[in-house]
């Protein structure tokens, strides 16, 4: 649907209905976005219009109305179509001599000009009604018109069959925002956030508290943007989340906090990441994991768009270990099967060397996934037919074949992907293959994932620590150092910390991590032990937090949900850039204003900094000056 | 009331009522903060408690409840008072041997420890009810108790009669937040913002849109923080407002936008300013000045706290010229009189040299204010008595004296302050004296300004341009270069631009500028003329905006209200730091975490910057190391 055929569809809708479409139109979407349980907003209060372009019906016949909008289309100087977000309406251009000035304005204004039109709502002549168009029974007989602003130039036609690169769309974002899809995305986002606020503030007594974004660098905060201050050598840092503040608010007795929080992360160039993003940030005192999960489920159910199937709660839950073993990832896409099966036992006595070797190693396993109809679509490897097509099919004995077929419920034309090796690596590999296969199958027409399905999943019982890559005796936090250990695992902290599970939970939607949270450590001594002894962090940087925990900190926990990602999944668009009004390119540039930009040396002076020009600058400049794809620049 | 006697008042309330207080208590304020027209929020959903500490009444008698809170007070190991934000409740510590473990926990936990208590709601013994306390008819007979966290140390007693410097409060902000006033301020702020959102989104169809804070430097943006990017010499800028974005959204057809927007302004050290602050940012298409004013009035009326007198709208309005002539400022405090009166005519034939000289000059005037009862309280200058006490009283002839007394309605004991000079300067001086006198009178017990009075005022018809100080032939924008000129003054743009009035409006509350807005220029040619020809700006930096105006930009306008300032005035606190959860000191420091802070040179490397250490660094370091007032550091 993205940047779909709305314009042609709607224009088409104005003349004769051609074919059938079940796709939403401006008018119907505008209605579906209204909060059904509430008073319908007044959309023309305080402004020059009496009505929006989308709301007039037969019930308005005879009314004198004033409309403001953009000229969408004009035909033979007899009628034009006026557009605002709320819909389209047909305006009849007067032909009599006494209305020459009105006719002149309406006939001469270029398409996309802004006009104000006053006139009478009249019936369309019999046979000319347009049932596809919400305003299709009426038209406006113009009596007065005013050109509010002429559209003098357009860098591209605002018609969706005119293909535009994303770079061009971002450069002229103010025009791209006029598209149906962008309007829909941003308005839906606003409604969802409003419903979330109603749920949190009005239904459950949460307090919306703003926390600073000019803060202190956090330990290991390598991805934090720096902001020079006017004191030589002193810098603020733009935090990646309000984590410390939300915990300090709990110490401060603000026991139900939330914020739609702007967060910053400097990851350099990363596709589909933004240097600034938004999270729904929540923290509560006296709560446990189940409490946060129920709250979150209620929040999403309450704010779910009315034009989608209502969410069923509670969401299913899975341990990290189970997710890894079954889906090869900590964020399983549970919209389809193809689960990983441990087939080690089938091959316990195999002659196949690499399988035997794998099983002999510690944690050695053989795993497989069954790709339904895979053999038909992806004619590789072994399929379920008797004559298995595989380089090593001949080494699989009949008994193993039957056992495997039974264990994995293999059907004709299915395909089996098999791997042998260490448990975690084997699962992880098959997890990736599983998704690749799903994509491949879908490009070839097999329907695996219902686009209307929203498959939420909690993943729980993560390990609290991971061993550092390349240095297996050192530990690092799996999520962050404030996560509380499972109460039943606390004793292990002092003996086998790598076995401790954390009270962390991730929320996954359709295979995407939507957010996560944890019950936090509220005991200063435990927090200090983990930071200092286990993680070898400089506790000085967090001394204020440790002090706070000693001053009567309540038990607390919370969650943060990625809003951009959530709206992206709900609207079904392919990039978070399509749910953000003014996004950066994936190299972090604002292509409209050309930010970031050079500044004059004297502007750096108050901040006591200077640019260290790299010595290989010429190379770099040459590289960045390559015209090719604007979006990459 | 600030950091007032709530603790002592409440503790006092627990035993015998002493004296009368009309001040709000935890319980009553918690209730008054609930949105009366709406469902009362569930305050104990998802958590370990069954009730809050403030909600139990006689109607709950016999119920088994679980409460979580802080130990506020304990007496003779027989009862303790448990506190959360919602109120206080008395808990009876069991004395029988079978409950020894419960008794031990409740008797040994230090004050401000966090405990969970389960028990039965019982009546207080006859005669021991406390009518001052919302929960004063009941108490909790504890059956089980759990120490959730012991309070191990407190840097200061959480009692308001223990005076704390603001520096100490900011350093231990998480404790300061437990104060009644801070809880009240932050919760009121949250409610007001929520009501504003309801008004804008649900009642009037506004769309909440987030705009970027990593942006391009704006022309003349000397107060914008810089954020180094990973590209050598390229910087983002943290904008002072979403001005450009809101206008571009209008071009994009998002015709009713609002945002609770984080803004940044680097002004160095300024008392009662914050480097980051929040504004209610609004923009609409097809609107005129009156439309924005009505919207704003409705917004404030709708979101006004229930425990205050409802606002009367519309607000009065005054031109800039009138405000200057009558109050000597563009933000008049209209809660009291003492208006400036032009008394030039009285002294048209005076003998007094300096008055005569002043009148002879161009725009020369004599102005005065009458300070009621001023002569009694401030025994200086001339008062209304026959024997005027003034160095130049003898030069004022009887006729002038009578005329003056009549013109200014002078009464016995009033005081007249008089000045002579150029109109604007004379008014401005008297405007300042007027406020000084008001402060002086009030410190001496004269009630001038009713603390319960909220006196809103629109100031309109500002000049569009000012002449630059020190360079009277050059113009600068009085507000910003996007403000549209008055339609009746447009012709003057090409002849006498300094006489053009702008379609700008300021909203003033009790003498403080709460915000302002304007109808914007939507014509690219006019915008370019003003930027290029009149203001001599580099239009290249705004080329995207000029292009946008040529692509069918609708007429539009908006307003921005300072949220911190508004909540500050509503709550009656003296500093915006008291309505912000984690404010910076007025030198821009976070005294809790010690931000801004030094960073390692390798952390600067990815951003291609280095510190330019000032040569007189020793001096600076010495100065900043002075211990004296922590808040100044």
For the termini of chain A, the CA-CA separation is 28 Å
Main sheet: strand order of chain A: 6-9-10-20-19-18-15-11
Q: Helix segment count of chain A?
A: 18
* Overall pLDDT of chain A: 88
Rounded to an integer in angstroms, the radius of gyration calculated over CA atoms of chain A is 30 Å
Q: Which descriptors would you attach to this protein?
A:
alpha+beta; eight-stranded mixed beta sheet; 18 helices
Polypeptide structure, described:
- The structure is a homodimer of 633-residue chains.
- Chain A is globular.
- In chain A, strand 18 and strand 19 form a beta hairpin.
- Residues 1-37 and 625-633 of chain A have low confidence and may be disordered.
- Chain A is of the alpha+beta class.
- Chain A has helices at 6-14, 26-33, 100-108, 166-171, 173-176, 180-203, 243-251, 289-303, 320-327, 353-360, 374-377, 398-407, 423-443, 524-534, 543-549, 563-571, 601-604, 617-625, and strands at 64-75, 79-84, 87-92, 114-123, 138-149, 207-208, 225-228, 234-238, 256-264, 276-285, 317-319, 341-342, 364-371, 415-422, 456-460, 465-468, 471-477, 504-509, 512-519, 556-562, 597-598, 609-611.
- Chain A has an 8-stranded mixed β-sheet with strand order 6-9-10-20-19-18-15-11, with helices on both faces. In chain A, strands 1-2-3-5-4 form a 5-stranded mixed barrel.
- Chain A is built from 18 helices and 22 strands.
- At the A-B interface, helix 5, helix 6, strand 6, strand 7 and strand 8 of A face helix 5, helix 6, strand 6, strand 7 and strand 8 of B.
